[in-house]
Design goal:
Length: 263
């Protein structure tokens, strides 16, 4: 989830005037799609595995049966934790103009899941075909009512805070308090606390909690047991991780990674 500057490549999609075109592809564990962007909005769905999407504004962890919304022109990378079955819808510019113009992870209902899979089976959807036009309308309706999952980690711009953030991402289980870690960043504890609030929108403590939650989720996506994921991510006990997970996402890790019902 590093934020080192790179040059993004434009990734051209197959030329098509269809309202929605698709990509269905499986990736091995550890695979990384380099920094790129498209000229269409993307809805990237993980039917298996966990993806980590990174852009300039932050990082998003996308567990199985969730999706990430990536507006057109957004440069991003995607890293795979575990074997990932990725199903992507590319929406024609302005088709979803009322949907957020920022990246976000969304909870995929059973209905939206089936719509995504059916669209991928079709390959593309056109407005001129009546039954396909109806599918497009239902997909857009579902996207209007999506629930955003709190799985974003915003990154600071200030180089001192960024050094601290990247050090913790490399070693999320570091138990040292901010007062001690701050000595290696070139700024005081008070300065770093102020920077994190102003540049990430949250306190350093909450940012660190979010980092640990996202690291644990990636480990679970790789097949790790809850105990291993909790300790590697920096939680003192598995029960502390489960409690933090439930507070953030409203369920236990086991429940959250189950396939959604049809509702």
């Amino acid at each position: 989830m590093s934020k080192k500057r790179q040059t993004a490549d434009f990734d051209p999609l197959p030329p098509s005037r269809a309202a929605i075109i698709t990509l269905a592809r499986d990736y091995p564990a550890g695979h990384r799609i380099s920094l790129h962007f498209h000229d269409r909005d993307q809805l990237v769905y993980a039917s298996r595995g966990v993806m980590t999407v990174t852009a300039d504004s932050g990082a998003w962890v996308v567990p199985a049966h969730r999706a990430v919304w990536i507006p057109s022109g957004t440069a991003h990378t995607i890293a795979m934790s575990g074997h990932v079955a990725m199903r992507t819808l590319y929406l024609k510019p302005k088709l979803a103009a009322s949907i957020s113009r920022e990246c976000c992870v969304i909870n995929v209902t059973g209905l939206l899941k089936e719509l995504i899979l059916q669209t991928c089976r079709c390959g593309s959807l056109w407005h001129i075909v009546a039954w396909q036009r109806h599918l497009i309308e239902v997909i857009l309706d579902q996207l209007q009512t999506i629930k955003v999952a709190p799985l974003q980690l915003s990154m600071p711009e200030d180089p001192r805070a960024l050094r601290l953030a990247e050090a913790l991402m490399s070693n999320p289980s570091d138990p040292r308090p901010l007062a001690k870690i701050a000595k290696t960043s070139g700024a005081s504890q008070r300065t770093l606390e102020r920077i994190f609030v102003s540049e990430t929108g949250t306190t350093f403590g909450k940012w660190r909690q979010q980092l640990r939650l996202m690291v644990a989720m990636r480990l679970l996506g790789q097949g790790a047991k809850v105990t291993h994921a909790a300790l590697e991510a920096g939680y003192s006990t598995p029960s502390a991780f489960i409690a933090a997970f439930h507070k953030a996402l409203g369920s236990t890790p086991t429940q959250y990674f189950k396939e959604p019902s049809g509702g």
